[in-house]
Amino acid sequence: MIWHTAVLGPLRFMSKKLGSNEPWFTVAKHAWRFGVFGPSDYQSRTLIPAQVSRTLKGKEPKHSNGGSGKSDLRVSSGDWVEVKSFEEIFNTLNEEGKLRGLAFMKEMKQYCGRRFKVFKRLERIILETNGELRRIRLPTFLLEGAFCSGEAHGDCDRSCFCFWREDWLKPVSGPTNETNDSKE
């Protein structure tokens, strides 16, 4: 089952008609989160409220849209970056698993801690749902060799680029022996 079309489409429609505080909406929302994040991440993201979780871990509250709200990563096409650890990325996400509107997908976890060459900075995308050309205002990057495997999206075979916020990356001088270069 493809969650984003089979579940989220009707959810968006029904939430506009009935409101998002209805019990059916809550159940469907949690079912979607469980499917995307898996059992352990679902528990830490959803069952333990974010404020309580941050208090227990002794962390400062995040920016209202997730993340710190500031980043000075200055990279361009061809530069090398390292994807931060999953824990570092997790700490930038809000309760919906997003950083300033961009979701961190389950398939992206396999790339944490690895080095990649920046393919390009994302400036515009076309939304497939309605064909709208949307401008990307916040620094978002495509990395060479970092593709979506489709496991959490009904085994989709499209191999789309993963979108990476600059808060999830750190600049490095170049590849190491363990990078994805030898696997490409």
Briefly, what is this?
With 184 residues, this protein is of the alpha+beta class. The protein is 29% helix and 16% strand.
Question: What would your notes on this structure say?
Answer:
By secondary structure, this protein is an alpha+beta fold. It has two domains: 1-47; 65-183, SH3 type barrels (Roll), CATH 2.30.30. Helix content is 29%, strand content 16%. The protein has five helices and nine strands, in the order H-H-H-H-E-H-E-E-E-E-E-E-E-E. The strands form three sheets. The chain has a five-stranded antiparallel beta sheet with strand order 8-7-4-1-9, with no helix packed on it. Strand 2 and strand 3 (102-103) form a beta hairpin. It is globular and about 50 Å long.
